[in-house]
Specification:
Elements (H helix, E strand, L loop, with lengths): L1 H13 L5 H15 L7 H29 L3 H8 L2 H4 L1 H19 L4 H41 L3 H14 L6 H16 L6 H36 L14 H25 L4 H41 L25 H18 L2 H29 L2 H9 L2 H4 L1
Helix pairs in contact: 1-15, 2-3, 2-6, 2-13, 2-14, 3-6, 6-7, 6-9, 7-9, 9-10, 9-11, 10-11, 11-12, 11-13, 12-13, 13-14
Family: Belongs to the tellurite-resistance/dicarboxylate transporter (TDT) family.
Keywords: Cell membrane, Membrane, Transmembrane, Transmembrane helix, Transport
InterPro entries: SLAC1/Mae1/Ssu1/TehA (IPR004695), Sulfite_efflux_TDT (IPR051629), Voltage-dep_anion_channel_sf (IPR038665)
């Protein structure tokens, strides 16, 4: 029993909030499998998607249990909130919960009360991320300046140097708290399809569209900061190069959200019965065209970010298109925990492309959705294997079980 206790403590101590991203990736992969674009393998994919859903439930429970065990005191939580490299993963926690709600909707759409109760909990999670977690990120440099200036006195040149030092540490992963609102918006728009009452449907349309608005407008502020950092200090290096995919999540879920909200708005007009059928047909076309236009705009930028992300990884790991060194990294890394950062963003593009295909029946979007879908499935499965092999401290656990405690200290 003592050895078991020590093994659990070893796992808790080695835990990092970064692993919340794993449940995001597995969660969205299960949803893609359950709604796979290719009809011939749809039934088989649905079955595998359900398996991934239950795997994701286990990952969510383990993740949050380990987090609570490690950060079980208020001072520890407070410390995390003032560490940007850790606090950003609260956004990943929120989005992992969202993927679970979406899959529950696909499996049991008649569980309306449970689904909407969970969604409103997730709504407050997303609001906390965008309002408070993002503010903690914004206030972090100010806290550092105040502390240093109180201790050392105020020097303008030092202040400028400190600003540059902080900006150099900013990565695209800092967008995670912002992505939560667009993900929750898309989820709310998705589950609104089971609402019968016109008043509640209108309320959901307004709330989800406001979440969408907050996500897009705030990303207009923060994405330029990310690229300012890249132009000033260079591309994210090696492991961090996978974070180049994070902004794709805003684009993919933003496009998905606006399409679903377009459909919900048309359904609301039908329920309200405020226009005749001829007018409704015209309004239907106008709303869908506008939604498609915005969604394709986001999709285009998402594809661009995908290419830039792939080129960034190539730059550091294979030395191309780097013009100065043939090879930047001597040791080949087959897996790194930050590889999880590619899973969820790719999944959002797959879902957005599939929804555009359903609305337009243009085969190209189905192909695009399939490409991204297969990519997500492969990367997620590989990341799950990598996490089991490399993240769990097997050597330390073996030493504890074998009784060699000195080596574990």
């Amino acid at each position: 029993m003592n050895k078991l206790h020590k093994s659990i403590n070893l796992i808790i101590e080695s835990y990092h909030p970064l692993h919340f991203i794993a449940s995001m990736g597995v969660g969205i992969t299960s949803g893609i499998m359950y709604n796979f674009p290719i009809k011939s393998i749809e039934k088989g994919m649905k079955f595998v998607g359900i398996i991934y859903f239950f795997i994701n439930l286990i990952i969510i429970i383990i993740n949050h249990s380990l987090f609570i065990c490690k950060y079980n005191k208020m001072e520890k939580i407070w410390k995390i909130l003032h560490e940007p490299q850790l606090t950003i993963y609260f956004g990943a926690s929120s989005m992992s919960f969202t993927t679970m709600i979406n899959m529950l909707f696909f499996l049991k759409p008649n569980w309306k009360t449970a689904i909407f109760t969970l969604w409103w909990i997730n709504f407050f999670q997303a609001i906390c991320c965008i309002f408070f977690i993002t503010f903690f990120l914004l206030s972090y440099p100010t806290n550092i300046y105040q502390k240093k200036h109180l201790e050392e006195g105020f020097f303008e040149h030092n202040k400028l140097r400190e600003k540059n030092e902080f900006l150099s540490k900013v990565t695209p992963a800092y967008l995670l708290p912002l992505v939560t609102t667009t993900v929750t918006s898309a989820s709310g728009a998705l589950i609104s399809s089971i609402i019968d009452g016109e008043k509640y449907l209108l309320s959901m349309i307004i709330v989800t569209f406001m979440l969408f608005g907050v996500a897009i407008t705030s990303s207009i502020v923060f994405i330029p900061i990310i690229f300012t950092k890249i132009l000033t200090f260079g591309l994210p290096k090696f492991n961090n190069s996978f974070t180049m995919f994070v902004p794709i999540g805003i684009m993919g879920q933003g496009g998905f959200s606006i399409l679903l909200n377009s459909i919900n708005l048309i359904r609301y007009l039908k329920l309200k019965n405020i226009v005749n059928n001829e007018q409704l047909i015209i309004i239907d076309k106008i709303i869908k065209i506008q939604g498609l236009g915005i969604s394709i705009l986001f999709l285009s930028f998402g594809i661009l970010l995908t290419i830039w992300g792939i080129l960034t990884i190539g730059y550091w790991y294979i030395g191309w298109p780097n013009s100065y060194h043939k090879k930047k990294h001597n040791k080949v890394r087959y897996w790194t925990p930050t590889m999880w950062a590619a899973t969820f963003p790719f999944g959002t593009i797959s879902l957005s492309s599939l929804e555009i295909y359903r609305m337009t029946n243009i085969r190209g979007f189905q192909i695009l959705s399939t490409i991204y879908g297969f990519t997500v499935i492969i990367i997620t499965t590989w990341c799950m294997i990598g996490t089991l092999v490399y993240v769990i401290p097997w050597k330390g656990i073996y030493r504890v079980i074998s009784g060699d405690e000195d080596e574990t200290k």
